[in-house]
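To whoever is covering the structure queue this week,

Two jobs came back overnight. Logging them here so there's a record in the thread.

Job A:
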Amino acid sequence: MDIASAIMTIDNLLWATPLIALTFGLAVAYCIAMKFGNVTKAKLQWNLLTKGGGSEEGLSAFETFCSVAAYRVAVGNIGGVMVAIMYGGPGAIFWMIVTALVTSAIAYAENSLGQIYKVRMDGQYRGGPYFYMERGIPWKTLGKIMAVIFALFATIGVPLLVTGPSANNIAQAFELSFGAPRWIVGLVIAILLFLVISGGVRRIAKFSTIIVPFMTIGYLIITVIVLVGHADNIIPSISMILGSAFNKHAIFGGMMGGAFSYGVKRAVNSSGSGFGETPPSAAAAETPHPATQGLVNTFSVYIDVAVCLCSGIMAVVSGCFNVIGADGTYMYIGTGSPMMQQLAESGTANVTWVQEAANSVIPSIGGMVIAIALTCFAYSTCIAYYYEGESGLAYLMRNASEKTRKTVIWMIRILMPVMFFIWTLVTASTAWAVSEIMFALMAWFNLIALLFLLPTVKKVYDDYMKQRKAGVETPYFNPQKLGIKNCDVWMDINKDLIAKDKANGID
């Protein structure tokens, strides 16, 4: 067995039914614990998102929201959706949307936990799975072991290994639409990547607040153009998606199992809910209550859902998609573009499908626009990946001097663009498999931690909602009042509010 085959085998083992069941099952448990507030409190999430805030130590809610959205909206929202359709049929789009909405409860949980157990370090707030594993899991030894292993995954795996699909898809998209050599594309993007990440969390946040709204709105516009160009096929396409999802379609009627399996897998890979990627960014926010940032970053899942839906509907409505049956042979080859036959022969499912969908309405230009959109998605995600690596490294070196910590962080800032360049030259299947292996390992550790910490998340969420129901304009967090240990930074953050309540006889 060669290295590429071995990587694919490991990927399939890690992403087998147990992980999918754990993800979906835990998501449902959190939905129940929150009384489905992850989806019913959308208006509240929006109101909290649009408020100001921020300080010398922490970022505003909107800045951290954009940083988290940058994680979520990536190549998985385009190329990953195409993979789901190829192996799960059009019905996978439906199950991706359902899964994303359900797993938004996990997004709430991990981002609020990032806030609950955050610390002050080097003049800013630091948090993440390693902190809530060490400080929140009742069994201290187990928590510390899990924290160190996860921090290693975050430090080495995220900035250096999971950037593969982003680099690879950008190179493919520009090679197809502009004829640009891969190595030149990789070199240019790597340099641009270094220019942003070298400025640390504040430059990353400022960049994200500019690019995230721009790239999301732009992608919605190109989707509308494609839909208008294929208006007569919109209703049949929706019928096909729903029919395939529930074994009711003439061609894809027997694919419900595959549609669900690949829909869940690709949705989780797309949104990153459960991977523990986003809590470090969420922890950087300045807020009086952890639930606030948890709710704000839950809203980012809607952005993820919208982009996934746009990608899927463009491919299906234009006929630019292929589907492989359970026996490994093609049961459908798209007729929307002559290139679909070539892509079927090479077994390729990536951004090219969406580029061809756009080209079917706006020849040549459409594919170029998708290439630029993909670059924005992937580039912003890689910047967010860097911050995950920096936060993991900060945890591992928390007992070192500030000077030593900053020196080692600069090593990551240099190594990441170099690895990004290398990934542009690797095959797409290997890049995806390596990325998914890393994410699967992180998911197993993080989801087990979230299982232990469900009571804490529920307690903090209920406290926030209780204060709002009582008419408190700005709910605040008092960990001692709730009996939550190892998060003393909050006693200092909210010391004035706590003292005021004590003076008024409020416990």
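Job B:
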Amino acid sequence: MKDLAIKNVFCVMFEILKNKTERVGFMSINSTDMTINEMFSSTKYYIDFYQREYKWKRSHINSLLNDIFYRFELEYKPTIDPTPENIAKYEWYYLSSFMTNNNNGQTYIVDGQQRLTTLTLILINLYHLSSYYSEGNLGEMLKSKIYGADITGKTYWMGQNGRVEDLDKLFRNEPIDNGQNDNISHVNIVNNAQIIKKYLEDKLTDRHIYKSFVIYFLTKIMLIKIHIEKQKDVAMVFEVINDRGEKLRSYEVFKGTLLGLLDKDEIDQKYNEIWQGGVEPLESINEELVDGFFRDYFRAKYVDTLNDYRDFDGEYHKTVFSNKWNRVLQLKRNINNIKEFVQNDFAYYSKLYYKLVNPDIFDHPYGEYVFYNSSLTDQDRQLLLILSACEVNDPEED
């Protein structure tokens, strides 16, 4: 009853929000509760630029699986036949929510792709276990939750944005060489699939518990789909959910606020590629470097006093759009300036920053000086000073 009350309150809150916002003409939000069986049946999910990479690691996977199995094991009865009718008597479990938006006939996941990608990896591993336990009918059902078919042929529900090859190899149980691809999503998909495989094999030790769990997983785990009708509202809702839920890093929210004003086709065809080209090399060393870059960049190019310097200590993704700093930066709702910033300043200075923090710094002609300034003279502001000294595409950079 407690879970049901929570669900009802959640749904009522969204209905109130939806009704109020529709009356005053701001935005429209629709909420729908769905089982995993319903969620993965006919919808091909694209991953919006807000959170394109799959970043979950072992701790996230174990936390999700522990929560699911805790609830399942409270209900599981080894003396009762694992039929849909009997499993229907189990208490349902609210996993979480995910946020979507439609554009040009395609459904984009704005928030929640970490969870949906992980659920797909669980489905793939459950599918493989169906052969081990000779559960052909369940195997066919699970297969339909992993991929379907459209006019182009076989389509994985979570296979967009370059993930088809990885999911297809995992589905076929073919080996994947993780050493040949350092893409964050690829590495985590491959690693997490192995973590999930071991976890499920340890838990689902006989045919009875396996069949009970599969039916429970497909029909009793609930998620709430929050659908945002208007594209222009997505960035604001994304930022609010981040502020009040599990925190994203500042640079991830900054990306959503900044690029969210651009046309989605332009983002996908050009600006997201530029953004990822600047961010991913820094992420590959340490995710904290990306926020370090943005703080150093804004301070290097625009700060003149100690008080101004301190403005960028915390959530700089909000500082940038404050009245004080927007008078200087002029990025707030200014599409032309946003495009110019991404194409020029961001593209150049993010690559320069990577050169300076690259572990292979000695491969560059200036590498020894950067290295020894840091390690011998304790010059901890040289990154800021170098960004300050260099102009965009500076011919005297070296």
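Note for Job B: The first helix runs from residue 2 to 24.

Please reply-all if you pick these up so we don't duplicate work.
Q.
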